[in-house]
Design goal:
InterPro entries: Ribosomal_uL4, Ribosomal_uL4-like, Ribosomal_uL4_dom_sf. GO terms for molecular function: rRNA binding; structural constituent of ribosome. Keywords: Ribonucleoprotein, Ribosomal protein, RNA-binding, rRNA-binding. It is built from 7 helices and 6 strands; from the N terminus they run E-E-H-H-H-E-H-E-H-E-H-E-H. By secondary structure, the chain is an alpha/beta fold. It folds into 2 domains: 155 residues, Ribosomal Protein L4, Chain: A; 41 residues, no CATH class. Strand 4, helix 5 and strand 5 form a beta-alpha-beta unit. Helix 2 crosses helix 3 and helix 4 packs across helix 5. The two termini are 20 Å apart. The mean pLDDT is 91.
């Protein structure tokens, strides 16, 4: 399996990169993708929600009326959940929503998303780009030359490139990450995935571990 390497003008350079069939050509496992996306989103939750229960309300504990003989329902003090301003029954408490997944399943999830992207022709390989200084206009020119205008795109770097990152930071539909920072959520959330040429083999090696 091969992909041609494109230059910053969107033209073919004549070079090709080899893609591992076991990474980009498997039958997608949708449940594995679901689990990793769920894990990612769960980890983003602050879990700081809190409501007061009956014992935490500051109010009188006087019994409002006698237990029997009134002809209506019995109740105790003003902190009862049946009254406005009373405690909440089984309200939310601070908690950690994170949960663990094994590494093999997370690798399978990434392979599944990449294989689906390959079927949809949504993966491109770009030659190494070096900006002399951060300049959003230059990044937009490359972005449009690749035919990505109006699309959400994930750019995958072989190593941290400050100028590329800063050049793309103001673009709402663009995300730039190094190959070892990517989650299945990032891949699913991107309409197009653009690998820098040097990142392809490193990314594949990372998924073979």
């Amino acid at each position: 399996m091969e992909l041609v390497v494109l230059n910053t003008s969107g033209k073919e350079t004549g070079r090709k990169v080899q893609l591992d069939e076991a990474i980009f050509g498997i039958e997608p496992n949708q449940h594995a993708v679901y689990l990793e996306v769920k894990q990612y989103l769960a980890a983003q939750r602050q879990g700081t929600h809190k409501s007061k229960e009956r014992s935490e309300i500051t109010a009188s504990t006087r019994k409002l009326k006698k237990q029997k003989g009134s002809g209506s329902a019995r109740y105790g003090d003003i902190k009862s959940p049946t009254f406005k301003g009373g405690g909440r029954v089984f309200g939310p408490k601070p908690r950690d929503y994170r949960f663990k997944l094994n590494k093999a399943l997370k690798r399978l999830a990434k392979k599944s998303v990449l294989s689906q992207k390959m079927r949809e022709n949504s993966i491109k390989v770009l030659e190494e780009v070096t900006f002399a200084a951060p300049k959003t206009k230059d990044f937009i020119n490359v972005f449009n030359a690749l035919g990505l205008e109006g699309k959400k795109a994930l750019f995958v770097l072989a190593e941290t490139n400050k100028n590329v990152y800063l050049s793309s930071r103001n673009l709402p539909k663009v995300k730039v990450l190094t190959y070892n920072e990517i989650s299945s959520y990032d891949l699913v959330n991107a309409g197009e995935v653009v690998f820098f040429e040097g990142a392809v083999e490193k990314f594949q090696e990372n998924l073979r571990k």
